[in-house]
Design a protein that fits this description.
The protein has 402 residues and is of the alpha/beta class. Helices cover 36% and strands 22% of the residues.
Length: 402
């Protein structure tokens, strides 16, 4: 193994399956153990032999975050620290502190001004219009509009915050990641609840695109240090989670090959000069036969192991680009694989019937992965927690998808 790889210290911030998937990718490809700074002892990153866990409830606060990174880097001066955020708040912190880290820290992120533009949904849709990227018909609502506004489309409506980071800082009863309002009256109730909780930014109201979970797609990309897209992996979402806080999280994905869609979004990313990981949420609109982009995450998504499992190890992308500085070929992953984080029985029961045979075929062929089942890391505690989580999905889907 290259000596430069042996000196890598992956430093990850977060505590969910996103973090575990990235740590797993580093361990699978290079045998490296990752240091993870989370807020709590969450099960995905606890009791793991591939992770050294550093929990602190203030890890997402500016002062605590910067001190943690600097102290870690200074304690490992002979190593190269790869700093990776696995949540929007951490990515913002990493970006906002570029230039403040010790010299042995590599943070593969764009500057804060572009990040803040892209993760703010209203400004992101403005960029989509500028570059010809299709998205759902959208109305940007501001509190001062009150109830005196007209919408250019009919119910049902999708309603979500422009500023996701601020939104979750102001919790309220019934707070969901995304709302679906069947009437204008219900839409007004949602807006009132959001703003009464203390949120002050704009809200996004959109035309509802018909179709179940299987009309969704997720596209993960890696752009090198020069802003050139080098890896793209399109996932066909077969089933999502359906709990109030988990709505929109992927549960079952099959890798898919759609080069026309990929190349269109490749041009978009390169026009922006984007670097690092990006992740698009997309839905196919059967009314006009077009793919509509919902949002961009300026990081790898929580389901990123569908990329690694599909042949595009996410850790290898960063190492090849930022450590070895190799010229990477442009690749669109095209091998069909199944990724899921729920039991096979749940997937088959609740997925669109048209995809159940495909799920069975991929399972039978052994072309299936689960982010959290990593045999080299499955000690007794992790096996028990994994089993508990898997069993919980039977209850959750029964409750929310009846």
């Amino acid at each position: 193994m290259d000596e430069r790889i042996k000196k890598i210290k992956p430093l990850l911030f977060g505590g969910d399956i996103n973090v575990y998937s990235v740590a797993r990718a580093f361990h699978e490809e290079y045998g490296l153990t990752s240091d993870v700074y989370s807020k709590y002892f969450t099960w995905p990153v606890s009791n793991s032999s591939i992770i050294r866990l550093h929990p602190n409830v203030d890890n997402d606060k500016q002062e605590t975050f910067l001190k943690a990174v600097c102290d870690f880097a200074n304690a490992n001066k002979e190593n190269t620290v790869l700093l990776i955020g696995c949540g929007d708040s951490y990515v913002k912190l990493i970006s906002e502190n570029l230039g403040k880290y010790p010299d042995n820290v590599i943070a593969p992120y764009i500057k804060a001004d572009l990040i803040n533009t892209l993760i703010h949904k209203a400004r992101f849709y403005e960029l989509c219009d500028k570059y010809g990227i299709e998205h759902p018909n959208t109305f940007v609502y501001r509190r001062e509009m009150g109830e005196d506004f007209d919408l250019p489309f009919e119910a049902p409506f999708i309603c979500k915050p422009s500023n996701g980071v601020m939104y979750w800082e102001h919790p309220f009863e019934g707070q969901d990641k995304v709302f679906k309002a069947k009437t204008r009256e219900r839409l007004l109730e949602i807006l009132k609840a959001v703003y009464d909780a203390g949120y002050t930014d704009s809200m996004i109201i959109q035309d509802f695109i018909p179709g179940d979970d299987s009309f969704m797609r997720v596209l993960t990309n890696y752009s090198d240090r020069f802003g050139k897209v080098k890896m793209m992996a399109l996932g066909h979402t077969i089933l999502e989670e359906h709990t109030p806080h988990g709505i929109g999280n992927h549960a079952v994905i099959i890798n898919e090959y759609e080069p026309e869609l990929c190349n269109k979004l490749k041009d978009f990313l390169e026009a922006l000069g984007f670097v690092g990981f990006s992740n698009f949420d997309i839905k196919y609109d059967q009314r006009d036969g077009k793919y509509k982009v919902f949002e961009i995450n300026v990081r790898q998504g929580r389901s990123n192991y569908y990329v690694t499992g599909g042949g595009g190890n996410v850790a290898k992308c960063i190492v090849e680009d930022r450590i070895l500085e190799n010229e990477m070929p442009f690749t669109i992953l095209d091998e069909e694989k199944l990724w899921r984080v729920i039991p096979k029985a749940v997937a088959l029961k609740y997925a669109n019937a048209g995809y159940r045979d495909k799920i069975r075929d991929l399972e039978k062929a052994g072309k299936v992965t689960n982010s959290l089942w990593y045999k080299p890391d499955m000690n007794l505690k992790r096996i028990l927690m994994f089993a508990k989580g898997q069993l919980g999905h039977f209850y959750k889907y029964h409750k929310y998808m009846r």
